[in-house]
Amino acid sequence: MLTSSPFLAGCAGIQSALDPAGVEADAVAALFWVMVAGAAVIWLAVMGVLYYATRRDRVVHSETFAGRVILWAGAILPTLILTALLAYGLSMMPRLRPWDARAAEDAPLRIEVVGEQFWWRVTYHRDGMEPVVSANEIRMPVGERVTFTLRSADVIHAFWIPSLGGKMDMIPGRENTLTLEATKAGIYRGPCAEFCGSSHALMALAAVVMETGAFDEWLARQAEPSPGVGENEAGRAAFLANGCGACHAVAGTEANGTIGPDLSHLGSRVTLGAGIVENSKAGIGRFIAETDHVKPGVRMPAYRALPDEEIDAIAGWLKGLE
Amino acid sequence: MIRVNWKHLAIGLAILPFAAVFVAWIGFFNVGASTGHWKITEWFLHFAMRSAVRTYSLAVDAPETLPREGVQAAAGHYARGCAVCHGAPGERRSAAVREMLPQPPDLQEVLAGDKWNDAELFRIVKHGVRFTGMPAWPTQNRDDEVWAMVAFLRNLPGMDAGTYRDLAYGHDRRPDPTGFHDDFDAALADCARCHGEDGMGRGEAVPILSGQRVDYLFAALEAYAADTRASGVMQLAASETDPRLYRRLAEHYAEMPRTGTDRDDADAALAARGREIARRGIPERDVPACVTCHDRPDRNPVFPSLDGQKRYYLEEQLRLFAEDKRGGTPFRELMAKVAKGLEEADIEALAAYFSGRSDTRR
User: Fold this and answer.
1) Which of A240, A242, A259 comes nearest B283 by C-beta?
2) How far apart are CA B193 and CA B77, in angstroms?
3) What percent of chain A has pLDDT over 90?
4) Which of A95, A202, B78, B255 gives the lowest tally of CB atoms within 10 Å of its CB?
5) What's the pTM value of the predicted model, to 2 decimals?
6) B74 with B144: CB under 8 angstroms?
7) Is residue A103 assigned to a domain?
8) CA–CA separation, B9 vs B44, rounded Å?
9) What value does the mean pLDDT of chain B take?
């Protein structure tokens, strides 16, 4: 145990299917351990037979006996085991992916996630509320089944939060539905799990599981402009004067672009740039000035021509949008 | 008798490069121009040059009709860069030029026949000719300018002095368009040859400068001089002007009124489509709304005004941006990204819209 613990350390943490924090992830982890145990038993049995077959003082068996061993151990037993595993695996499917996709529309909380090179467009559809737009982060209440509708705007991406559940592709021109139920509050991480271009490895999202009350309060705040909009006047002016609003929306200002991520509450997100930069004033400034270095192949042009003080002002204003 | 075998041949070949360098080092070969070429050398050099131009011009895609929009700017550039060697209507070349080896041809004479076709002229103007002193076009990114020059050259034979002076100088006086300008009035007079004394630009390819933002004009001049914006015509013009005059020149034109742009000729449906793109962008192709950057009175002062700008000029700039050939101010990357999402029809629509807009939101 002591010697293996350094290796097992990689199995815990915010992005591990072996450290489940959701109903689906629990089932996936249970399936994994059952299969590991079963594989261990089968491996030991095969090794035993191998030893038996190669020992020095061999007993010669009849051809009929050998035929029976091959039939049972080589065909019938594997078929039974695989059938059982298939049945168990299929029985988990309806929970992860509803049979009736239309039912997803009526789910009390539906989160629409669109994969784009190289970020995530997120829209919350909560019963009795106008849709709330965000990006690069999903928040969900603990203990409530949440429906995800997954789409892509360009190439194939894949949505996977290992701590919460299984993985599903986001395919252009198709809408895939996935449901997840978190069991433990916390912050998890979901990488894009299908190669999507030069910055595929730099495309991740933070998944924040909150207590139900806290989540609804948070969502209600997201539906309103951030109080930070009115602060840092110089930063807001520079943001608008340099055309940032052509691609980004910030609620409460005239910036209403839809090409890039919505920045209305950027300051309170866990990470920046789809999970790759620390969300601080300095991090925002770096992303504005060196976008193409931070994220090769990114669609946003780098604003390195802007004077430092303007970048600083914009970063300060954006960080204040909580 | 020595039998030549492969060994002797190999030794001979190995020695050959050293022998060649040795002969050149001795310096007996006469590079003086006083005696001219031998007849056979001259014939061979011409033969090789003509053949090379003919062969390389096969890859040139010549338009059926040469574009007329840039002919005036080409004439202005011809006066600065070409006339000194090739002559111009009413302007005889100096005796010194006529003593050069090889002697640059008098283009009015040479082009009167059908010695070169359009593609061959394009090839020569764009790439120049090695060993003759004929330089390449200052940038390899502006085929539109080169075609305009070819169009001008086609008109050159038979052009009278008055017509040429009007095209190249804008009036019937002959200023000196060559040389370095460190005097404001001389520099301004040089700008005015193409941009007009009113800053409205002569010809469709020359942009309107009057009423343009001063920071944009200044940044554009700096970009031309620093080789970050491509234009054979303007790069030469900017580098022949004292950089200390850029700010004053920019202020001069920025302060001029943009006089009435009567461009109701624009197709109304096309302009309406352009208006739609300008206001909403094309989000599915990552094209943001133009007005977010180009309309705000409090915008970054380097973002230019587009209202009433020449339609052909706008189209050409958008095409250049889309092909990553334009360059520009330090903010050029923004437009390069945007223009890649535009299709030819969008470019035409946008140019129709902005050229037809009155100058109200500078």
Assistant:
1) A259
2) 10
3) 68
4) B255
5) 0.86
6) no
7) no
8) 29
9) 91
